[in-house]
Amino acid sequence: MSGVGRDSRAALIPLFLIAMGVVGFENALTRYFAVAKWSEYGYWIISIVMAGFALSGVVVALFRDAVQKHGVLLRTLLPAAMVIAAAVGYQLITANPFNPLQLQNPTTWPDQLRNIGLYYAALLPFFFLAGLYIALMFVMNAREIGRVYGYDLIGAGLGSALALGLMFVVHPFLLAPILLVPLALATLFQPGRLNWLGAGLAGAALVAGEAILFLGPAPLISEFKAVYAPLNTPGARVVHESRQPRGHYLLLENFTERVDADVSNNAAMMGVSGPPETWGLYRDGNRIAALPRPGPLDAGYAPSALSAAPYLMRPDADVLAVGLSGGYRVAEALALGARHVDGVESEPVLHQALVHGLAGSPALAQDSRVRLLDGGPIAAAWRAGPAAYDIIDLSADFIDAAPANVTGLTVEALQAYLAALKPGGMVSISVSIRDFPVYSLRVLSTARQALLATGITDPASHVMVYRSAWNARILVSPTPWSPSDVVALKTFCDIRSFDVSYVPGMDVAAARPGLFNDLPSVSFASGRITSDGPNDAIANEAGTVLNGQLPASAGAFHIRPATLDRPAFYASLKLEQLDTLVRRLEVLPQAEIGGLVNIAVLGQAIIIALLVLLAPALFRRRTGGAPEPRRLWPILYFPALGLGFLLIEIMLIDRAAFYLNDYSSAFGLVLTSMLIFSGLGSMIAGRLGDMPKVASLMGLIVVIAWIAAMLAGSGDFVMRTLDQPWWLRAGLVVLAAAPVSLALGLPFPLGLIQVGDGRMLPWAWGLNGAFSVVATPLANLMSRDIGFSSLLWAAAGLYVLAFLVLPPGSRKPVPGDAARPQPDPISLQEQSV
Predict the structure, then answer these.
(1) pTM score, two decimals?
(2) CA 380, CA 373: separation in Å to the nearest integer?
(3) Rounded to an integer, what distance in angstroms lies between the CA atom of residue 275 and that of residue 302?
(4) Are the beta carbons of 28 and 163 closer than 8 angstroms?
(5) pLDDT, tens digit, for every residue of 534-555?
(6) For the chain, N or C: smaller number of CB within 10 Å?
(7) 3-class SS of residue 13
(8) 812: DSSP letter
């Protein structure tokens, strides 16, 4: 028996390498989309992967006997075919002229739909072949289901880790060519007499594939990304390049780069200089901050900036600056008379640039008045305690500087800020109104909820709003604004030609004729601007929102508070009004398109899942045996597992992103941990196949207990440990993922064992994959509109459903089993072709 175990394990080493290569290649494709296009379109990769896997499961189910008969030959040829398919597919997608912005143009969107179809045509063959190989290994090792799935998951987990590690040293466009290597190496470990043939073919395919990739046209960044124009201006140069899992960073020098400060048009009359030239820091082609050129920081423009009002209203202030804009926010605060500045920069590369400098851009100058804090803004306010600051100032580029930063503008975050303020202190929040004024209304709704949570019964007297043509500043105070504060703000705005949009007791109609910057209301349903003269869309509805009533904008937009459970900032569109959104595509902000992408991916995923569900109707009668037995429980069981696993994974990634203050490291840690521990759980399941109900109950108890603990106590634990070192928090993330992942690894192999080794086996695997792709866009939509806690509730229900429908006891032989030769692990090395 020990010999059989060793032979079986040796036969599964190629599966381990294939899974490693496939997941690594998948990660490489998502990085390509993030850099060359936009990251929200990376969801298509997940859709294509699972579509290929689902299709392969159906094909193997339909032709199961032929697949098993020619299994050794297929196992020998598939790695080489996969290498060629991956190389050709990658070359085709890099040549695809897809431009997502043209989806918003009624004249050009049909061509872009064709380009989306070409993405599927280019990549589906590779993932179909990969799924075919994995399904083949299930068929050839039907007595070793737990071990097969374990090798698959652990290989996938290490493939994810390998891809993340390579991102530190390899350009994003070169990741895919490198990750073809594990696919080719798999053939070196194939058992049997044909391994020499497979190795030779795979080696030739690898050479041919790399030649296709390196001799063909080089991948390019879309000309519509923010980095494209400055990168191609005369005299532009790349000062520094950094490659990391969290992004591909470029530090650029060109004549277009300036401090991104909203300054008054009256700056010259005030005798104030304009924003100085800087270097621009870009991540994945999107500008995240200005970094100073060598030399001292020039903040002479600060008195004319929109952000200056709080400093003039509260001179000699103790300040918590959230988002430091390369150090310029600290220089502005000091230039405006701040006594002490604590700075928080959540984006890791920006933080390191402030500490150590970056390629000639100087570090933050040593100053006894300045202290740079680690961690995110909530942790900083939490550590500071009560009555610590006069001003907490969130920079204009803070929200867009890092994915995890959206948590810094939630009800819980504002509560922490308010608790850290001195009496009369204020939180100053910048909100862009370039696309929709509605974002300022959402922040007002969040501020109202935070004020109510602190015991304030009249939030409207604790808020003031002023603006330029492009940005609004929202001031929130734990104490009511005094008449002198109102006068000071109005005087500040009059001198600089800014507008006051809301102060307590404001007469909106009386203020309208004196507006400097027109901000008309827009009818989203019709696309028409409605204005009968100077108008202020924020002023029209700010008082309504602060008084807890629904404004007119609520008919088209979500005017609701952002919370840690539902933190998405760019989630104002009501996706249920899909017809209106499609008709108004041309006016949608780029950041809001992600929701529509999720709907499109969800729609196609549901179609794929339904087609896979119907596949048993096509199953042929097995040669020399009885028809495939009809069993209804797999139709509920495997979709429930596919949905439930991904819902938990996506929720855990988001919570870890907030906890670690970095989405990329959270993604890598959670994905790798869950795959590896689930693989170990799968191997345990293989030993418990004779008592599936008992083993499934054990797993269900762990899953439900974990979900209950996450819902009941994780929030308080996270808040109390936010100030711990990063490495400790990362270890706690892995520790949190381990038990539930181990338990999640049990149900799937237990179900496959119950299905048996007939056509249902590969079909069940394909069904699980089909509903996994449904889970990804579904989870994103649920978290956007309902909250991340809803994912846990749904996952709990799905795993309970799976337990209830799983048949009790060991699988009984079905008619026809005896007629088919049973696969034996030791025969993997000696099967004839």
Answers:
(1) 0.87
(2) 7
(3) 9
(4) yes
(5) 888 899 999 999 999 988 888 8
(6) N
(7) helix
(8) P
